[in-house]
Amino acid sequence: MANITRWNPVSEFDDLMNRYNRLLGLTRSNDEREGKDLFSSSDWAPAVDIKETPEAFNIEAELPGMSKDDVKVTVQNGVLSIQGERKHEEETDDKKHHRIERFYGSFLRRFTLPENVDEDSIQANFKDGVLSLTLTKAEPAEPKSIEVEVQ
């Protein structure tokens, strides 16, 4: 006897929206909660807070379960990059995984820096799974005045 599966267009739309939201890092889908991998293991991005004071911009990235050796911060052409990898614990004969809800794999976050950031004075600190970056503001460059002679 053949099994009959009912088509549910609302369920398909919900699945499509979950995949879209997961791609953007907005929510977790049911498949992800059950440990299925819809995309690759590298489609996650750590949550980031960006704050501004009169002296600097402060960026904090949540990287639970990671160490400072797992993370690389670079600045190139006015773009700040935070990249790294959170490795997944492999299942063994004596340890079976029943549920995997955390993201694993590689990540890359990029931020275009404002013109008033002194790229040479960026400071990084890593404590309790939080990467804290301090981007000191530079003095605004004085506009140059060029006198043009009209003939």
TrEMBL record:
<protein>
    <submittedName>
        <fullName>Hsp20/alpha crystallin family protein</fullName>
    </submittedName>
</protein>
<dbReference type="Pfam" id="PF00011">
    <property type="entry name" value="HSP20"/>
</dbReference>
<feature type="domain" description="SHSP">
    <location>
        <begin position="39"/>
        <end position="151"/>
    </location>
</feature>
<dbReference type="InterPro" id="IPR002068">
    <property type="entry name" value="A-crystallin/Hsp20_dom"/>
</dbReference>
<dbReference type="InterPro" id="IPR008978">
    <property type="entry name" value="HSP20-like_chaperone"/>
</dbReference>
<dbReference type="InterPro" id="IPR031107">
    <property type="entry name" value="Small_HSP"/>
</dbReference>
<comment type="similarity">
    <text>Belongs to the small heat shock protein (HSP20) family.</text>
</comment>
